[in-house]
Design goal:
The protein is of the alpha/beta class and about 220 residues long. It has helices at about 15-25, 35-40, 45-55, 65-75, 90-105, 120-130, 165-180, 185-190, 205-215, and strands spanning about 5-10, 30, 80-85, 110-115, 130, 140, 160, 195-200. A five-stranded parallel sheet has the order 2-3-1-4-8, sandwiched between helices. It has a three-stranded antiparallel sheet with strand order 6-5-7. The protein binds adenosine monophosphate (AMP). Adenosine monophosphate (AMP) binds next to helix 2 and helix 3.
């Protein structure tokens, strides 16, 4: 059975951390639009410069650019049995773009999970977040620190703070989320695909809540 899962939720809610852990359980890859864009932004091209600027300001990158990159990623062999999509779609227009991409690959969304947590929890998590430059693993310097300071437990890569995790940009990203991404909820609810999961607690608890939502729909 394919598991074509879409996660959405505000920045800091744990989409990345949760997907990284579920990859091992469900054996489908974590496809993060933010991660794909950050990689692309490292290239030396006009497109890379544009992406870098949007990401640094906490603004959305152009719909077609992101959709193109997601289409390319979902066409890779490891997505045949499914995927966990994190960060796409992020606005109403991207919903139809994802529909078109999935139609092209003859796939259907199995479930859309909205992760939720109060704003003060999100801001706290984002401020303490560090990420591995090499493999992308996410750490919380207070609650989930690496064994050796500044070094990734998984691959030995260097940990860094995302430039969009600084207070002013966090504020902007939360605003963009409310305005552009929250409306996704109504559309997926209408399609009968939506499950909302509380992710305000410890990572273990949040993972258990997600697994329960998947079980409820016969997906785990
Ligand atoms: P994330 O890692 O999901 O928090 O994304 C980081 C940044 O990448 C966002 O603040 C946006 O600038 C950009 N981004 C990620 N996904 C999308 C998307 N689907 N559409 C437009 N911009 C995106």
């Amino acid at each position: 059975m394919e598991l074509n899962l879409v996660f959405f939720g505000p920045p800091g809610v744990g989409k990345g951390s949760i997907s990284q852990r579920l990859e091992k359980t469900y054996r489908v890859p974590h496809v993060s639009s933010g991660q794909i864009l950050r990689r692309k932004a490292e290239e030396s091209s006009i497109l890379a410069m544009q992406i870098k600027e949007n990401v640094a300001k906490g603004e959305l990158v152009d719909n077609h650019t992101v959709a193109y990159l997601i289409e390319e990623r979902l066409g890779k062999k490891d997505c045949r049995k499914g995927f966990m999509l994190d960060g796409f779609p992020r606005n109403i227009a991207q919903i139809s773009m994802l529909d078109a991409i999935l139609k092209h690959y003859d796939k259907k969304i199995s479930i859309v999970i909205e992760l939720s947590a109060p704003e003060d929890v999100l801001v706290e998590r984002l401020s303490w977040r560090r990420q591995c430059r090499q493999c992308g693993k996410i750490y919380h310097m207070k609650n989930l620190p690496p064994k050796k300071p500044g070094v990734c437990d998984e691959c030995g890569g260097e940990l860094f703070q995302r430039e969009d995790d600084l207070p002013e940009t966090i504020k902007k990203r939360l605003e963009v989320y409310k305005k552009s991404t929250e409306p996704l909820k109504a559309e997926y609810e209408k399609r009968g695909l939506l499950e909302t999961v509380d992710c305000s607690g410890e990572i273990k608890e949040n993972l258990a809540n997600i697994k329960a939502a998947l079980k409820k729909r016969g997906l785990a």
